[in-house]
Specification:
Elements (H helix, E strand, L loop, with lengths): L3 H8 L3 H9 L1 H16 L4 H8 L3 H9 L6 H11 L11
Helix pairs in contact: 4-5, 4-6
Length: 92
């Protein structure tokens, strides 16, 4: 059976795949940051949802990258996880 990691490594050799994958880097970073904030706060998705007055399904979509959150939503998520939202611009 082929492992996903092996397929990914093989596909990364293709310029078109690599370009598309790299274009998603910011989204992956946001999803990872959300998950890190929640896990470091020792909270479940349900607990974060309760603190934000929303549903667990909404938190799941947020953390999966299926929706693009507003700054206000990210601020509410930060507050719910006991963190502070920080946005920065970096040179390309």
């Amino acid at each position: 059976m082929t492992k996903i990691a092996d397929l990914h490594a093989k596909w990364m050799e293709k310029p078109t795949y690599k370009a598309e994958y790299d274009a998603l880097e910011e989204e992956f970073a946001l999803m990872a940051a959300l998950l890190k904030a929640r896990t470091q706060a020792h909270l479940t998705q349900e607990q974060v949802a309760e603190r934000m007055a929303t549903s667990q399904a909404t938190i799941a979509r947020l953390e999966s990258g299926k929706i693009k959150p507003s700054t206000r939503t990210l601020e509410r998520y930060a507050q719910a996880t006991g963190t502070r939202l920080q946005i920065s611009f970096v040179p390309v």
